[in-house]
Amino acid sequence: MEQREVGDSLTDAPCGxxxxxxxxxxxxxxxxxxxxxxxNSHSLDPAELxxxxxxxxxxxxxGRGQPPRAPGEDEAAYxxxxxxxxxxxxxxxxxxxxxx
Length: 100
Description:
The chain is an alpha+beta fold and 100 residues long. The protein has 2 domains: 1-42, no CATH class; 45-100, no CATH class. The chain contains 3 helices and 2 strands; from the N terminus they run ββααα. Strands 1-2 form a two-stranded antiparallel ribbon. The mean pLDDT is 87.
């Protein structure tokens, strides 16, 4: 269901968009909204699952500089530094950042 403006009021109406297989009967947009709400409600951090390359791409999208890889630094240590750089980016007031 979604709210739609009808004249001066809002009414609840079915979304009407196609629900792909594996999306629990939700359209792509509402499925993403559902997943984000679950991630946020459990204070999960998807960045923990990112590869080093994915962390670099995310930092670039955020307009943040990437820390250079130190000579002799192994992949795991560099990935950890990239992850620390991402977790320093503020999420906003509505999303608590809880570390386990």
